[in-house]
Design goal:
It is built from 4 helices and 4 strands. By secondary structure, it is of the alpha+beta class. It has a 4-stranded antiparallel β-sheet, sandwiched between helices. β2 and β3 form a beta hairpin. About 20% of the residues are buried.
């Protein structure tokens, strides 16, 4: 039986820290993974420090199973691009998940839902 997956929007400082730190545990045994600088990641994701947020909307999401982070994703809408191409679209990034199709589907479906909001 598959255990329930909860998708939570990143809102608190604790959530942001969990979002940024998740790949460190996910890839800790991967010799090819090069970790980002935590400070740079935090500044990139901070709407008050990253000017790209002036013309875009973004939400960050964490996936949990049994209160443990099992995935993350960022959903991004670039309003200038939508205006120029006259087509609604949503992008995603910072997509890291355990090897589990259900977790992947849950996160990607949440991005789709964000795009429809």
């Amino acid at each position: 039986m598959t255990k329930k997956i909860d998708i939570k929007e990143v809102i608190t400082e604790k959530d942001y820290f969990a979002f940024v730190k998740f790949p460190f545990s996910l890839y800790k045994n991967n010799p090819y993974w090069i970790p980002p600088l935590i400070k740079d990641e935090i500044e990139t994701l901070d709407p008050n420090k990253n000017p790209v947020y002036k013309n875009s909307s973004a939400k960050l999401f964490l996936a949990f199973r049994e209160n443990k982070v099992v995935g993350r994703i960022a959903a991004i809408i670039n309003w200038i691009e939508i205006k120029e191409v006259k087509k609604n679209k949503v992008r995603f990034g910072w997509y890291d998940v355990i090897d589990d199709v259900d977790v992947s589907k849950s996160l990607l479906n949440r991005v789709i839902d964000f795009g429809k909001e």
